[in-house]
Amino acid sequence: MSYYNRHVKIIATIGPSCEDPEVLLKMIEAGVDVLRFNFSHASYDELDKVFEHIEKIKRETGRRLAIMADLQGPKIRVGLLEKSPINLEPGQEVYLVVAEKSDKPNEIPIVYPHLGKDVKPGEEILFDDGRIKVEVTEVLSNDRVKAKVIYGGNLYPKKGVNFPHTDLSVPALTEKDLRDIEYILQRPFHWVALSFVREAKEVRRLREILAEGKPEHPPRIIAKIEKPQAVENIDEIIEEADAIMIARGDLGVELPMEELPIIQKRIITKCIRKAKPVIVATQIFEHMINNPMPTRAEVNDVANLIYDGADALMLSAETSIGKYPVLVIETISKIIETVEKEAEEIYLPVVGTNKWGSSPQKDSPTFLSDVVCYHACKMAVETDAKAILSMTYSGYTAFQMSSYRPKPPIYVFTANKFLLDALNLVWGVRVFYYNKFESTDQTIHDVQGILKNLRLVKPTDVVVNTASMPIQARGRTNMVKISVIE
Fold first, then answer.
1. What are phi and psi for residue 411, nearest 5 degrees?
2. Residue 171 belongs to what H/E stretch?
């Protein structure tokens, strides 16, 4: 399948299973659009080696690839245990202590210095993705808390700890994150994912730190929604971030599971209406970590995410440590392509807005340009156009057109080399380099020729062109032209 034919994008996480150049190449050929580096695990030396492979693949294949850095954030974990695992029984009394290690059978070391300051009696603490639950009964000191086991089981060291009802005092950016950001700013990362976001001000702080590094093109920011507080503040976070990731792992642990599907749909709708890309992550194809096929439930989940409107689906352990990193990309690509062929309701209709109600807003400072983009998409639908062709330097036009969800692909031409890869995250958008911009007619003629040479359009095809006039000024989109390919 040609990756040009897909609207929904595929994000693959780098890890031991796909660091080999041949495996990485096969994954990219199978349809990867974005490569994610998880800074919870990788070393800088390992990242440098993978970067060399990626750059070589891009040079030799001409493929565009967005690169994402996923910051670890304040991940709280169980410390080391003298005996591993320890078995916890329902009703058992245990002590949670601030420590790197404990050798007492009724003590659980927690690597978090503010434990006793933050938690309150009656609050729940979850271990190992919610498999074990305890309830705080008494705060004995800043370093020691008494709790009762609600759901028991075997607890292993270094498992994650979640505090669903606690207002944690830990900052969203840790010392490790700040060191990682220094590395990120020296490499061609297009997106940075901020973990455990609670408020919009945390996104603003990351943007300030990125700007302090004075990069020519600072990475765009993805706010990861995995805390209840983020759901409460979702409108402000969407407004501040460049994209949103619904991280269903921690979010599903910290919220009642029955609420997660509703929250997921609501966040996707809000993002589409604000023209902000939205990624869905965690347990996409969990079964394929160790098996050559997904479960039927996972196939249906992926299909429903396409119907819900996700811009991109993110694979984590499936590609980083799974047995079938190439096969998982081939499988998800086939599902996306098949669903998109049949799911007419996900596209902009001839009459009215798309199913999420995305349309130009009169109170927007870019309202006039938004109207042009919107009607270019409507015209493409009405004329059964084979493509929408657009010029941009900031990327704004691409984000806006994508949010209207037209069925024809959106081919964007830019002189901004950073955007060539960065926009690979955005639904329905493919990007090409173009740097002449001598006149509007000449530019339209040139970009149509590029697509003809790539066999993405052919003679007699109808296409819709947008641009800004005068084209040399590179202003906001203010022109639409319908063309027939000669």
1. -100, 115
2. none
In the annotation, is 36 catalytic? yes
230 and 156 fall within a common domain: no
Instruction: Give the integer Cα–Cα distance in Å for 315 and 433.
Output: 28
282 noted as active-site residue: yes
Residues spanned by the domain of 158: 80-162
Tokens of 280: 């869905």
| Same domain? 211 vs 335 | yes
**Tokens found for residue 471:** 């084209």
Residue 131 a catalytic site member: no
Determine the Cα–Cα distance for residues 292 and 178; give it in Å rounded to an integer: 38
Q: Which of 26, 58, 75, 77 is an active site residue?
A: 77
Q: Say how many domains are in the chain.
A: 3
Tell me: the pLDDT tens digits for 278-306?
999 999 999 999 999 999 999 999 999 99
Same domain, 25 and 68: yes
Average pLDDT, the chain: 93
Catalytic residue among 224, 227, 386, 405: 224
**CA geometry: angle 10, 337, 296, nearest 5 deg:** 85
- Say how far apart CA 9 and CA 1 lie, in whole Å: 14
Which two tokens mark 275? 């023209």
* From 36, 198, 405, 407, active-site residue: 36
**How does 443-469 read in b/e, with b if 16+ C-beta sit within 10 Å?**
bbeebbebbeeeebbeeebbbbbbbbe
pLDDT confidence band for 1 (50 / 70 / 90): very low
Which residue is catalytic, options 9, 133, 248, 282?
282
State yes or no: is 13 an active-site residue: no
